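Predict structure. Chain length: 456.
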Amino acid sequence: MKAFRFLHAADLHLDTPFSGMSGVPDRLRGLLRESTFAAFDQLIKVAIEEAVDFVVISGDIYDASDSSLRAQLRLREGWDKLGEHGIPVYLIRGNHDPLSSRRLRLALPGHVYEFGSQAESVTAVRRSDGEPVAVLTGVSYPTPAVHDNLALQYRREPGSALYHIGLLHGNVDGQEGHDAYAPCSLRDLQASGYDYWALGHIHKREILCESPWVVYPGNIQGRSLKETGPKGCYLVEVTENGEAELSFRRLDQVLWLESRLTIDGIATEEALKMSLEERLDELREAEPGRITLARLSFIGRGPLHGLLQSGAEVAELLQELRRKEFARFEAAGLGSSDVERLGLGEGIVWLAGFKLETRMELDREGVLAEDSFLGELFRLAKRTSAASEQVEELVDTALASLSDNRQLRRLLQGLNPEAKQELVRRAEELAASMLHEDTPLSSPSPPSLREGGGAS
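Prediction complete.
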């Protein structure tokens, strides 16, 4: 077998509209919409710089079945650049861009091969000498929803010594959070005899197996807080003995992430603001030349719990931090086409919002010793928590009225014993918080109870 290398990407979702985001200035929104194209441009750049023998793309090139002319023009521009370097592309269609939605205004160039609605195989060659190196098999979605196990159509060619690569857009072993299109099992893929499964559809980067390789590269650009972390593609280098080495190549120009900030030890609003600004500086310096969209979760216990829970002050703080960041954005003179060149020594960090997970600062032992309604409530919760069957009975009874809703019923069925214990603990603290809030302002707080903050 001859050594060769290829890029594996999936779920480009070109021209994603990024709808439903509130508080984002139009110019920044323009950069977000441009980000999928910028990531695609990076994909083309990496393929050329790494001198790969070919590129495989495992479905959902477009974000919608009625792909825009702009998306098609940008796609064709990328294909032409690869063609100039003699790099072929092999692709399949997924649920977002099925064959039934074919509205292509531009024909595919000769070096781009699109698989049809039935599994078919082609031979890929090494660019340096034209030697055959791999058999590629793929099948495109004929319609948006495919519920058949397409993996059963893939079988290794008998007697072939070439490396076998299967392109498949589907859900392996029923992964949560994605539609069960083209469902199959890992065992199905292992039984096929293929060496590498180039998967698409799941937007989280994940290697399910190394023998054979079963790989989700994830999408090339995160598009919401459901798609956090670096995004990109895999460079796959296959040696002469058929062993493969994978290396991740980052492509995203906009990073979505979740960050946490504890309020432990923070006593004033000014100190909170300073801690927030320090965290934003850290995120900015960590991703120079990128736009980071972050949701920040407040965790911990401290005197600012009540302030954060009030809502109004948090909204004002968010607005002020956004104003300052947009001023940085404006000072850089960025336009909607500048997502690849922010022109800053540091990046831009836009707060997508705050998440409040703080708790009251609570002297639990003091409350347990009190001769009060709250003390009795805590003692009851402690006795209940010590007996798992009582926790089960208490939580199931309390949540019984929610079981009429199908979606809520599914969520409740997934509660494990630890989660039910956590619900009891949260109810305990909620009761303490409500009783504390009902205390007249002129009255001193009980000695065992004062406002603070924390995570849940």
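Summary: The two ends are 55 Å apart (CA to CA).
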